[in-house]
Amino acid sequence: MRRAPKDTEESVRKITRRGLVMGGLMGGFAALLAGRMRYMQVDQADEFRLLAEENRIKFSLIPPERGLIFDRNGRPIAVNEQIYRVVIVPEDAGDLENTLARLRKIIPLTDEEAEKALEEMRRASPFLEYTIADRLSWEQLSEVAVNTPALPGISPEVGLSRHYPMLEDFAHVIGYVGRVSDYDLSKIEDPDPLLRLPQFQIGKVGVESKWEEPLRGKAGNRRIEVNASGRVMRELDRQQGISGTDLQLTVDSQLQNYVQARLGTESAAAMVMDVTNGDLLAIGSAPSFDPNLFVRGISVADYRDLTENDHRPLANKAAQGLYPPGSTFKMVTALAAMEAGVVTAGETFYCPGHKEVSGRRFHCWKRSGHGWVDLDGSLQQSCDVYYYELALKAGIENISAMAKKLGIGVRHDIPMSAVAEGIAPTKAWKAERYEQEWVVGDSLNASIGQGFVLASPLQLVVMAARLASGTQIEPRLVKSVDGRETPVKGLEPLDISPTALQQVRKGMYNVVNSSRGTARGSRIVAEGMTMAGKTGTSQVRSVVVRNQDVPWEQRDHALFVAFAPYDNPKYAVSVVVEHGGGGSAVAAPIARDVMLQALYGGLPPMEAYPSSSRWEVEQIRKDLKLREDLRQDASDRA
């Protein structure tokens, strides 16, 4: 059927309108697409270029080289050694378990190590590098490098690790580094990004801990290009970090080595201090341990051996150990009484072997008594009753004030862990600590360094140095920082009568050199090197029993403090031997040998010792030589 011309014309008009509408819509859409394309390609070109770059370029931190630590003579005692290691970036590794399984075919990883690595990587940020294994051989590293195409996310690297070449000698001084823990991070308000790198190491104790930030340095960074599978194609840019600060300590590594060897298997501490500038030349604490064990990750068995040892090798006895100072405290009591004006050096008191106060007997170590004694005699024979009399006259407040003036009951500012404050008790201290009143017996006990009085070997060597120099000398452990000398502190004169100090020094001289002195057997006979000192024996039990009749842990501590040369003091020494028995028999010979080592800068001639001691000294030297040979063999094997 044919359509009418009118109908055809109407149909054409409708189609034309629809075509125009559709064409307009299509044109508008095309214009919109064109505008959007221009916006994305021109206006947002930089942003999308950056996104594209981020897909193929990765940034990573470069740990800086940790600062080195040297002894006073420039000998390195904490260094960084080159090691080979394998790292993994979890987000690039894909299936972590499968990748680790492949890696274990190349390098030895136990099931425990692999499981621990997986657990830690899942907890950490996926874009951070994680060290799977370190201290690999060159052959192992090479094999990993050859197989990297089959090991996504894994890279072989050359890195640095802390090493302590002197092994046990400086473990309690320098301390050691270890992996950053959650506990470490919890103590830092705004942690350095470096600390969040898995297995990054920081100082845990000792100088390594106290000087952590300067030693750590500042991180660098690098940009690397990777392909679609995450394999590193090339390094685009590298900005090196700033190496950590180098430290030079005041300790002498040779003297330190001798001190540690001389203390031997004893549970003991010994310190040497230069009385002219406060330099700590040796800080011995025995037994010690190899700090390298902690750097590498100490085994359960090794850690158990250290913690279950009754001689406490992990404890820094020199700075944190606290002991009743015993008779080494008597110089404090004597100076307190003289400065208070209640006694003179020539005044005498009678010692019948005890002093009775308030119906209680306070005994002298010599039960038969010393008879009439003055200051000089009381020191050289270590008469206890003389100091009981001084305590009654001077009072505990004067004694405590003098103790602090000489460095006891004071926390000295040196960069070591848990430096002890000690106790120089007062009436207020006892009331606050025990909610009890001070009684006269407390003063008598304190006068001979017993009762509540506690001091560390560090405090005792400071006391000896101040007595010798007459100054307020402060101990110094860091000699220089990046070559810049640190200041000496405390050269001001002590607020003590020079005459009183000289009278105490004379008494200490006679302790070592007079025929009746308690330390005569440990004197120095070399001309111009005469030593002055004071023995001490402090009780660790209330019942008086012979040391040989009780277990080791119930025996008395042996102490000795000294300075030399007497006419021109250079060095001060303190020695504490836990449960060693008598100070004159055990601590004094060690102090004499250490002092001579310091004075001569090495092994002294046999002529420096009394003839009666030379055979014993010769045997000790042979024993030390044998120990050093065994130690060197162990070091070479390690």
Distance between the termini: 110 Å
> What proportion strand?
15-25%
Residue windows where pLDDT falls under 50 for at least 5 positions: none
The percentage helix is: 25-40%
The whole-number mean of residue pLDDT values reads: 86
> How many beta strands in the DSSP annotation?
21
Using only CA atoms, what is the Rg? 36 Å
The total of helices stands at 23
Per the principal axes of the C-alpha atoms, what is the gross shape?
A: elongated
Structural class: alpha+beta
Major β-sheet annotation: 7 strands, mixed
Write the layout of secondary structure elements.
Elements: H1 5-43, H2 45-56, E1 57-62, E2 69-70, E3 76-88, H3 90-93, H4 96-103, H5 111-123, E4 130-133, H6 138-146, E5 154-163, H7 171-174, E6 176-179, H8 182-186, E7 201-205, H9 206-210, H10 212-216, E8 220-226, E9 232-239, E10 247-249, H11 253-263, E11 268-274, E12 280-286, H12 292-296, H13 300-307, H14 330-339, E13 349-351, E14 354-357, E15 360-363, E16 371-373, H15 375-381, H16 384-394, H17 396-405, H18 427-434, H19 440-447, H20 457-469, E17 478-481, E18 484-485, H21 498-513, E19 532-538, E20 557-564, E21 571-577, H22 583-600, H23 614-637
Parallel strand pairs: 2-10
Antiparallel strand pairs: 1-8, 2-3, 3-4, 3-5, 6-7, 8-9, 10-17, 11-12, 11-21, 13-16, 14-15, 17-18, 19-20, 20-21
Helix pairs in contact: 11-22, 14-16, 14-17, 15-21, 16-19
